[in-house]
């Protein structure tokens, strides 16, 4: 009898432990978040979303924590990129539309308010020509990056037909110099016409249905994602 009990105890101890559920992992993550241990909280939220893919709150909490880490300047360390945050939030809203109302009030998500992804969640889309003027103003537009210097130009469309071009020029010694130029713009359908000081004629571009803002060089193309973490 003693031998049988020993074998039973050995069998039970060798049995694999039941992995924690998505809800349990999410609860652990929330406690870590409340104590300010954000990287550890993110790990738990992501594990919760993986354990229970249809658990909206886990996806939402992962998005919000990434937003907070982005605010803290830890973009590259935790891949807290704007498109990643938007993707996780969009998944949460798809699974539970009530998450959108919470997101509107969540300061952790302020870092994505000026993205196309956020605007789409609000019902604005570049597929609709009528939404183009509002999207231009609501979104921050970034040009391509140059290695470690990141994005070297950006456009910000403002009310009243005003636009600002931000540039980062790199000199021969590798030292960046920033400048800002104020101009004007008009919109007709998908066509965007920008007039900047020192240019002989306005530059005409297009906001495509895919959400890319394209102009001929030297202005070039713009998206809602800055260049980050490139070596």
Average of pLDDT: 92
Shape label = elongated
Number of helices: 9
Q: Specify the structural class.
A: alpha+beta
Largest sheet: 8 strands, antiparallel
H/E topology pattern: HHHHHHHHHEEEEEEEE
- Strand share of the residues? 15-25%
The low-confidence parts are none
Number of strands: 8
Q: How helical, in percent, are the residues? A: 40-55%
Terminal residue distance? 67 Å
Report Rg.
24 Å
- Strands ordered across the widest β-sheet: 1-2-3-4-5-6-7-8
How would you describe this structure to a colleague?
By secondary structure, the protein is α+β, with helices and mostly antiparallel strands. Helix content is 41%, strand content 19%. It is built from nine helices and eight strands. α2 (22-34) runs antiparallel to α3, α2 runs parallel beside α4 (56-71) and α3 packs antiparallel against α4 (56-71). It is elongated, with a radius of gyration of 24 Å. 29% of the residues are buried. The model has no long low-confidence stretch (mean pLDDT 92).
């Amino acid at each position: 009898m003693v031998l049988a009990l020993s074998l039973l105890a050995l069998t039970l101890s060798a049995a694999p432990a039941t992995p924690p559920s998505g809800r349990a992992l999410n609860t652990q993550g929330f406690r870590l978040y409340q104590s300010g241990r954000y990287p550890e909280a993110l790990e738990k939220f992501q594990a919760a979303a993986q354990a229970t893919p249809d658990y909206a709150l886990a996806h939402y909490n992962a998005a919000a924590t990434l937003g907070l880490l982005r605010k803290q300047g830890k973009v590259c360390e935790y891949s807290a990129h704007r498109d990643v945050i938007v993707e996780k939030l969009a998944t949460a809203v798809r699974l539970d539309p009530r998450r959108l109302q919470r997101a509107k009030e969540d300061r952790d998500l302020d870092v994505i308010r000026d993205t196309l992804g956020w605007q789409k969640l609000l019902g604005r889309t570049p597929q609709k020509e009528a939404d183009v003027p509002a999207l231009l103003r609501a979104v921050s537009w970034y040009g391509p990056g140059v290695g470690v210097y990141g994005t070297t130009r950006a456009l910000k469309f403002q009310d009243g037909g005003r636009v600002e071009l931000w540039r980062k020029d790199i000199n021969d010694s590798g030292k960046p110099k920033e400048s800002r130029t104020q101009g004007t713009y008009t919109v007709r359908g998908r066509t965007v016409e920008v007039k900047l000081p020192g240019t002989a004629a306005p530059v005409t571009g297009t906001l495509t249905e895919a959400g890319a803002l394209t102009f001929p060089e030297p202005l070039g193309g713009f998206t809602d994602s800055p260049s980050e973490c490139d070596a």
